[in-house]
Write a structure and sequence with these properties.
The protein is mainly alpha-helical and about 140 residues long. Helices cover about 85% and strands about 0% of the residues. The protein has one domain (about 1-145). It starts with a helix and ends with a helix. About 35% of the residues are buried.
Length: about 140
């Protein structure tokens, strides 16, 4: 039941982001699906690996791959699916708690939470880079044949 609830909330947050930024109407639910699946991967791998950084990498990789697949299928840019899809993965709470610790002059906690947040953000970027690189490599090999 927890997974269904997580999927639903991440799906709705992705759809809300799409609506606010005027995404193409026919792709709002599809982008929401990408965001929901990304969060399910994050949730599942965080239980298995017990690391938010590694699980964020796999979730971003999943969002990137799904975004590339959907972009080919629906003939739209991959960013229409990828950008909203990573919204549930963005470490907003980590940034908040880092700033809160700085305001409270708890520099050790700020450094700890800040570095974790930075590594999560890097994991998102690396996951998206790897998925885009794989997609382009496959496309290049496919067109050479």
């Amino acid at each position: 039941m927890e997974i269904i609830k997580n999927f639903l909330f991440s799906f709705l947050s992705t759809v809300g982001f799409n609506i606010i930024f005027s995404a193409p109407k026919g792709l709002v639910l599809k982008s929401g699906f990408v965001g929901g699946i990304g969060w399910i991967v994050l949730y599942s791998t965080s239980i298995y690996f017990n690391s938010s950084i590694i699980s964020t990498f796999f979730a971003a990789l999943t969002v990137g791959i799904l975004g590339e697949l959907f972009s080919r299928h629906y003939k739209k840019p991959a960013t229409v699916f990828i950008i909203p899809g990573i919204i549930p993965l963005v470490p907003g709470a980590g940034m908040y708690y880092t700033m809160l610790a700085l305001v409270e002059k708890d520099f050790l906690a700020a450094a700890d939470k800040g570095t974790e947040t930075l590594f999560i953000a890097a994991a998102i970027s690396i996951g998206l880079i790897v998925s885009t690189t794989l997609s382009r490599s496959i496309k290049r090999v496919k067109y050479k044949r």
